[in-house]
Amino acid sequence: ILLLVIYTQQKIRETAFILVNCIPIIDQLYLHIDGDILCWQPWQTKIFMSIFLVIIPETLVFLLGPPLLEQNRISVKNFLFALIFPLPFVLHWTVLLLKGTRNVNIQQKLASTILNELTGPYSHKLSKYICWTGVVEMRRLCLVLLVQFVENEIARYSLLLLVLLAALNLELQIRPYKSNFVYFANILCLYSQIGVVLVNYTIVTFSFVNNLHKVFEYPNDLCIYVARYIEDMLSSWIPLFILGCVLCCKLLEKLYIWLGC
Fold first, then answer.
1. Looking at the chain, which terminus has fewer C-beta neighbours within 10 angstroms, N or C?
2. What residues does 145 pair with on adjacent strands?
3. How far is CA 150 from CA 13, 56, 110, 133, in A?
């Protein structure tokens, strides 16, 4: 259940935000992805409620839950139920953090398995109150919110750049991963994301200048073509190359150990 929630949360989050993202057309609000669908129908209201009751609080479960579980302040059952009904448990955990210590009897073996899945790749605990997995999920949540709900493109890419630079600076200072391969791969992926944002920011700026002053027509088209090509490289080929390098290094490491060299 835990792995299923972790791997599907990002896609569920993106889909939910897409389905509640509305834009004004004349005097009505219509769905952004389909201008023929009126907003705030009953099904859309339910999705909007689930965002506040489940999707956003679930991110806080990964932020606050593992440290409390490790400190024996919540049970395994409490943590697993929080993945299904997160809001009341997050509120309860916040009260626990404010009140102080509270030890409970937990299943040590199962708790260790859960903690290993969530905190195993990381060598650094941000604090005794926050798990790094939750920090990563919060970053993803911020990026999805900015992409879906900031309509002004220049403002959107400016905010995306700030979030990614802050995340990069935090990772460079803390170095949260145990494996150097995973750490450098993650850093390179962040640089790739920043590069994609910068490329799109450049395209938007050129388009804005071109529409405002009606200049740079041919250079603007050429720059946009080059920028799109760079974006494709940063968003697809380079991450795949990095992933391939990491996998090859891990396989060589396993082979080296197996051969007893």
1. C
2. none
3. 16, 18, 42, 26
Q: 96-105, 142-151, 192-201, 224-233: which has the minimum mean pLDDT?
A: 224-233
Residue whose entry in the numeric block shows the structure tokens 């955990």: 93
As a whole number, mean pLDDT of residues 162-183 equals 86
The CA distances from residue 252 to 6, 127, 244, in Å, are 28, 35, 12
Contacts of residue 231, defined as CB under 8 A and 6 or more positions apart, other chains included, come to 195, 196, 199, 200
Place of tokens 């997995």: 133
Look up the pTM and report it: 0.77
Cβ-based neighbour number of residue 119 at 10 Å: 19
Task: Give the burial string for 73-102 (b: 16+ CB within 10 Å, else e).
Answer: bbbbebbbebbeebbebbeebeebeeeeee
Give the span between the Cα atoms of 150 and 145, in whole angstroms.
Answer: 8
Distances (CA, A) of 180 to 156, 175, 237, 238, 250: 32, 9, 22, 18, 11
Distance of CA 130 to the CA centre of its chain: 16
Provide the pairing of β-strand 22-25 with 34-38. unpaired
Kindly report the CA angle at 202 between 198 and 204, in degrees rounded to 5? Answer: 115
Task: Look at residue 148 and tell me whether its pLDDT is greater than 50.
Answer: yes
Cross-strand bridge partners of residue 28: 25
